[in-house]
Amino acid sequence: MDLSEVRRRMADGRLYACNSPELFAEQERRRDVLDAYNALPFSGSEERSALLAKLVAEMGEGCVIEPPFCANWGGANLHLGNNVYANMGLTLVDDADIFIEDDVMIGPNVTICTAAHPISPRLRAKGLQYNKPVRVRSGAWLGAGCMVLPGVTVGEGSVVGAGSVVTRDVPAGVVAAGNPCRVLRRIGEKDELVYDHDKPVEGFWRDA
Prior knowledge:
Blueprint: H1 3-12, E1 16-17, H2 21-39, H3 45-55, E2 58-59, E3 64-65, E4 69-71, E5 78-80, E6 85-86, E7 90-93, E8 98-100, E9 105-106, E10 111-113, E11 115-116, H4 121-125, E12 128-131, E13 134-136, E14 141-142, E15 147-148, E16 153-154, E17 159-160, E18 165-166, E19 174-177, E20 182-186, H5 203-206
Parallel strand pairs: 2-5, 3-6, 4-7, 5-8, 6-9, 7-10, 8-13, 9-14, 10-15, 13-16, 14-17, 15-18, 17-19
Antiparallel strand pairs: 1-12, 11-12, 19-20
C-alpha cells in the first residue's frame, strides 16, 4: 500500500498498518522539532510560540502550550483556535485531527487520543490501527489529568472534571466527570454569581 493511501486511511477511520518505515521516518522528523520546543528555556516564550506555529496544522492568536508537550505526530494534526491554553504535560495521540476551538482551557497532564487498535489480537499483531478525530468546542475546560478518547466531541462551554475518562460526546453547557465521564448538571445562571464552594463573584469580575 502506497503512502498516499495510508494517509487517506489515517484520516477516514479505516484500518492501516501504523508500523511502516516511511511513517516512522516522518514521525522522527516531527518529534525532533517537538524536542527542540520542549528544550527552550522558560524565558523563550516568543521563540516557543513561533515554533509551535510550525509544529501544528493551524493556530490562532494567543495560544500557549506549556512544556513538556508530548505528541505522537509532533502536533502535525492539531488545529488550534484563538486563546487556547494548555498547562504542563499535555499528551496527544494525534494520528488524526484534533480540533481545539477558541478559549479552551486544558489542565495539567491531560491526554487526548485519536488512535485505537482492533480488539482482535491477530489484527493487532499485524500492526493495524484506526483513527477517529476529536473536537473540543469553544470555551470548554478539560480538568487536570482527564483523558479524551477517539471520536469524542466536548461541547461548547462544558467542564470536564479532573481525572475523567471521556468515552463519549459531552453536550454543550454541562459539568461532566467520572470514569466513564457522565453529565452531572447543566451550567446555569447561578454559575455567573458564584465560584468555588459558593463563594460570590465580585462585581468587578462579572462586569469585566
